[in-house]
């Protein structure tokens, strides 16, 4: 693949595209140390080959959309490490380049440039709470510079992901206006509400009627919570739904560790697709083996 192609999200016929899984867990399995506030974004500077290898593992597993290592990559986060604005811009753009390289030779693989929430930059677990005490305008000013930089790298889509709060979603949607790249909007949720407590229908509704939003849905949540969310997203917006939950294990933000067992079951994939999901994959702790099983389910169901 030599350049970007439009992200064509299937609207009918039940077809779906397979997303990748968690980048951080794959990097950890490759022996990478992610005990850093920049998390996987640190490797954009320190060991980019590991990121490319992680992407490639998901391509081999059947993923046809790769999400870049820019989730926690921000100008503010890089500045705390002594990285200047020019170098930070180059690192952000390189996240798209690395995914493109991993996809080379495999037709039809698209690249989604990850735009994580403000709380991801804080690296204190607040992306699972939202409500940062900031205005929508302040959040828009935070997000706009890196969105513009990522758009310059010509990804197929911008993934506005793990958004905990409808206010931040509004800010992010304002920040992408005019950049010329389609987006998907994906909330992190608990039960039938956003992490900040807003009803899902209210949160999803802000994407309805926007031509630049090609899909809306959820990620970084429990697999069981995704079941209802897919139905609500489809009914509220009429758009294709994106869904990529975690393994179902719990995350202790203070200890920075996972606990409990996995509840990720690819058998849910058929139900998600029937309810309107057209971009389906996994998030934290969902690896290539699970993505291969998703791909097999989608291929087997036609």
What would you note in describing this structure?
Zn(2+) binds at residues 220, 283-284. This is Homocysteine S-methyltransferase. There is one protein chain. This protein is 41% helix and 16% strand. It has twelve helices and twelve strands. α3 (48-61) runs parallel beside α12, α5 packs across α7 (136-152) and α7 crosses α8. It is globular.
Short description:
With 302 residues, the chain is of the alpha/beta class. The chain is 41% helix and 16% strand.
Task: Report strand order across the widest sheet.
Answer: 1-12-9-8-5-4-3-2
Helices and strands, in N-to-C order? Answer: EHHHEHHEHHEHEEEHEHEEEHEH
- Number of helical stretches of at least 4 residues: 12
Using only C-alpha atoms, the radius of gyration works out to: 17 Å
The shape is globular
The unreliable regions are none
Taken as a percent bin, the fraction of beta residues is 15-25%
Number of strands: 12
The level of helicity is: 40-55%
Q: Give me the secondary-structure category.
A: alpha/beta
Main sheet record: 8 strands, parallel
**Average pLDDT across residues?**
92
How many angstroms separate the termini?
25 Å
EC number: 2.1.1.10
Cofactor: Zn(2+)
Domain Hcy-binding: 5-298
Binding site for Zn(2+): 220, 283-284
């Amino acid at each position: 693949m030599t350049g970007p192609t439009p992200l064509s999200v299937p609207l009918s016929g039940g077809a779906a595209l397979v997303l990748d899984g968690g980048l951080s867990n794959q990097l950890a399995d490759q022996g990478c140390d992610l005990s850093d506030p920049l998390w996987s974004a640190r490797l954009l500077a320190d060991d980019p080959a590991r990121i490319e290898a992680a992407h490639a593992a998901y391509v081999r597993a059947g993923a046809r959309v790769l999400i870049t290592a820019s989730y926690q990559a921000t100008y503010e986060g890089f500045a705390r490490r002594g990285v200047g604005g020019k170098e930070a811009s180059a690192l952000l753009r390189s996240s798209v380049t690395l995914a493109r390289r991993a996809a080379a030779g495999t037709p039809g693989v698209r690249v989604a440039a990850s735009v994580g929430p403000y709380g991801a930059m804080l690296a204190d677990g607040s992306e699972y709470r939202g409500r940062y005490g900031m205005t929508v305008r302040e959040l828009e000013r935070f997000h706009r510079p890196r969105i513009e930089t990522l758009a310059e790298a010509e990804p197929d889509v911008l993934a506005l992901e793990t958004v905990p709060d409808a206010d931040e979603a509004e800010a992010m949607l304002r920040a992408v206006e005019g950049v010329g790249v389609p987006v998907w909007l994906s909330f992190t949720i608990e039960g039938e509400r956003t992490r900040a407590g807003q009803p899902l229908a209210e949160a999803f509704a802000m994407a309805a009627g926007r031509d630049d939003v090609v899909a809306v849905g959820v990620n970084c949540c429990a697999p069981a919570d995704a079941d209802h969310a897919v139905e609500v997203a489809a009914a509220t917006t009429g758009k294709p739904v994106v869904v990529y939950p975690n393994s179902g294990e719990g995350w202790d933000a203070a200890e920075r560790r996972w606990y409990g067992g996995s509840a990720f079951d690819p058998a849910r994939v058929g139900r998600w697709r029937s309810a309107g999901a057209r971009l389906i994959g996994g998030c934290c702790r969902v690896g290539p083996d699970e993505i291969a099983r998703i791909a097999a389910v989608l291929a087997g169901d036609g």
